[in-house]
Amino acid sequence: ARERCQGSSGPASASPLASAGPSHWKELKATCGGSQQSPINIDRHRLRRDGRLGDILFEGYDQAPPGKWRLTNDGHTGTLQGDPAAEHINISGGGLPGTYRALQLHFHWGSLVGNGSEHTLDGRQFPMELHIVHINVNYRTLGEAKGHPNGLAVLGFFFTV
């Protein structure tokens, strides 16, 4: 089983340029030195298409979601939280081991002095990144889903200004 990087003994930063950035996380906590964790750099020169995965299927993405969604700002990001029982926005296929329903979306943005995307493309950060977090329909809560390697599926989108 993969060990998860949770908590550290000091302040960490997602900025690749920071002294406590991702390349230094392993110094804060040994389990944070893995290669399969966030943030990641998508290196287009090393990508290989796997046709066996098939297309990602989007269900309900072409309609306004029914029900109430809650918008919050915690001073770090804006989050739009959906009803966890709603089953109107789903993804499947694309190598996913089942169906995942949209639970929330949030943004990572920068400032006048730095870009804000969590991840990078060919080493480049972007002004903003949107994450749409989906929960495996086999799990009832975000907490339960986080405890399983197939619990969450997150779509990420870079923005330019």
TrEMBL record:
Biased composition (Low complexity): 7-23
Sequence ranges assigned to domain Alpha-carbonic anhydrase in this UniProt record: 10-161
Names of required cofactors: Zn(2+)
Stored Pfam families: Carb_anhydrase
GO CC annotations, alphabetized: plasma membrane
Lyase found in the keyword field: yes
Keyword Zinc: yes
Keywords linked to the UniProt accession: Lyase, Metal-binding, Zinc
Catalytic activity: hydrogencarbonate + H(+) = CO2 + H2O
Similarity-based family: Belongs to the alpha-carbonic anhydrase family.
Protein name: Carbonic anhydrase
